[in-house]
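Researcher: We're teaching a course module on how sequence relates to structure. For the next exercise, students receive a sequence and then see the predicted structure as tokens, so they can try to spot secondary structure elements on their own. Here is the exercise chain.
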Amino acid sequence: MMSTKNVGSKAAVPSKAARAVVYINGIFMGETPNPKELVDEIRKKRRFGIISSQVNVAYFPETEEIRINTDSGRARRPVVVIENKKPKLTEDYIRKLLDGEIDWNYLIEHGIVEYLDAEEEENSYIAMYLEDITEEHTHVELHPSMMLGTSANLIPFAEFNRGDRVNYGAKMVGQSIGMFTNNYPVRTDTKFNILAYPQLPLVTTKIDRVMKGHPYGQNVVVAIMAWDGYNLNDAIVMNKSSVERGLFRSFYFRTYETLKKKYWGGQEDEIGIPNPGIKGYRGDAAYNHLGSDGMIDPETPVKSDDIIISKTSPLRFLSSEDMMSDIENKRESSLTVRYGEKGIADSIFITETTDGNQMFKVRIRDKRIPEIGDKFATRHGQKGVISLLVHQEDMPFTKDGIVPDIIFNPHGIPSRMTVGQLLELIGGKASALTGEKTEASIFNAVSEDEIRKMMKEAGFRDDGKEILYDGRTGRKYEVMIFTGIAFYMKLDHMVANKIQTRGRGPVTLLTKQPTEGRSKKGGLRLGEMEQQCLIGHGAALTLNERFNSDNVSIPVCSNCGLMALHDEIKNKSQCPVCRDSEIVWITTSYAFKLLLDEMKSMLIYPRLEVEEI
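Model: And here is the predicted structure for the students to work with:
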């Protein structure tokens, strides 16, 4: 409501600049003449537990808006409230928490700790440490690492990296293959990966300990050097002998499911090997690997399009007369392995849905050994694919016989400025030598000087450099090579899931062009830029093959220029407009013929001028 000044009243009318529009969850609710007082009152009531602790409020004087948020899905984080330059979370409260006299909810309900969302954080001035608190500060961090999420807190020495690299690293931690749960043998997720030999990182953070050792990678020996150009552009050279010993070996699981449905009229699906007369029967050989019950036996190898559960269904849209016959009105509807996948039948689950239909699930297991093109990354956002697998005897080695598992290109460091990775390499090396894990939590990591001291005490150079010898020639490299131990992650992006090729195959019904997508046996589209690239390389004849995927011959009337009709039975063509005129056959793409049809549907006359060439 708009306020007006009473005659003779001493109260001043608030200035226009002090007014603010109020939004709750983005919905306009009204205006207020005292925005600061309203915001302070809401925060006061939240801290006293009068309104929900889930409410967040923010005042933006530049746009004259108050935004109150109570909706779900907001990212919120806890901070300690400051009153009179002192945090409300005192030593007494901390002691009571440790003794179990109070819990976390007590701190929230009594306004000692509150959760801020992104908008209210704009109204706050948060101190990182207790000694930083001034009169202007409104909150103090429980710990500076609380400003990051779980994935970002797993990154060691994160404060030494550029901000975007921390972001990339956090994203790739989420893509890493590890062991996401212990009960995976009895789970039926659509698809998931399990690392065969997961390890805990030698260079750890606080969140590693909070998660009680959640494995998501392996510790590997890394040498930072160029190797004949094979690790150019972020590619990595990997030790083939290490891979053969089990390095980064993983298993890919995919679950297939089908229902034994019941239909009207008492009909239902049948699970079992079908009779040869049934529509869609695939031949005896297609069912040879199945058991007598029509289901695949555990530990049976399967490949693309192999049947794993044999099923027969009644035809759709049956009349009462059709139900009298048996074989003629059934079709084969077996469950098959997806195109492009293979593996071994791992487990078979038989259960029932809430509708009373029997459900069958088959989980396929595929062993994944690292190959050229598989993607790996460190926790610092340094990602790359395997470009070469080299036998151990050809890899560089130290005087102690240590052979690196991965050769990483030094050009990846200066432009990315991931100094944290260099510290992790030397910290991991120190951990391996001393047998103790290196603490590398953000803002609380062990110092570089301490790591150097540990290296010296172990009898190594404190800068991580070592003399390496070329395994192929036995000669010493002219420069010293920086080596260490880093925690590498195998990512979900594997060649086996992405590789795609095609010759002839299925086409779409509408355009007669190849289908789209790997799972549909689709083709790879060549656009205008690819066309220019092939011409630029002098391979113009390749385009003749690539751009003829939907070639078609169509009859055209030489008189009116419209498409004629062709009778396949009589082998005769005739123009529907001119009747007995001369018909000319032209070769063009089916997409062009489709365009002509669509133009006619919009009452546009697409006249074709044809002539002999």
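Model: If you want an answer key for the exercise: Confidence is low (pLDDT under 50) at residues 1-16. The longest helix spans residues 419-434.
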